[in-house]
Design a protein that fits this description.
single chain, 138 residues, alpha/beta, Rossmann fold, 5-stranded parallel sheet, two-stranded antiparallel sheet, 7 strands, 38% helix, 19% strand, globular
Length: 138
């Protein structure tokens, strides 16, 4: 497990889940629910919804009020759309990392995030990495 993944899973609390679906059968919904069960605060981001998992949903990361903490921006969007959300994360004060889900690979966006001092996980999933982290620390 790399240091960025470990840092985001152990030293963050609030995750904005971009592309969070209201459909429980979708990966984005399942991962948001898992993050909540693991004690993280989840801020759903989806321009077509007002509430997901009982939480207020925002159209974009930039629409999340400044008084709402966001530590990690978790991106469930196609790779060709991920960079926009990475740039939103870079621009938002307080964000510590970006997490690009399985299959979401944008090397240029990841490099911009690293240069901005953010932790980066790319083509990774918390549902896989959390058990790995537990195994490594037990």
């Amino acid at each position: 497990m790399d240091d960025d993944v470990r840092a985001m899973l152990t030293s963050t609390k609030a995750w904005a889940v971009v592309g969070c679906s209201p459909d429980p059968s979708r990966d984005s919904h399942r991962i948001a629910a898992l993050l909540r069960r693991e004690g993280f605060t989840v801020i759903p981001v989806n321009p077509r919804e007002t509430s997901i998992l009982g939480e207020r949903c925002y159209p974009s990361v930039t629409d999340i009020p400044d008084d709402v903490d966001v530590d990690v921006v978790d991106v469930f969007r196609r790779a060709d759309q991920a960079g926009v959300h990475v740039d939103e994360a870079i621009a938002r004060p307080g964000v510590k990392g970006v997490w690009l889900q399985l299959g979401v690979i944008d090397e240029a966006a990841a490099e911009r995030a690293r240069k901005a001092g953010l932790h980066v996980a790319m083509d990774r999933c918390p549902a896989i990495e959390l058990p790995r982290l537990r195994a490594a620390t037990s």
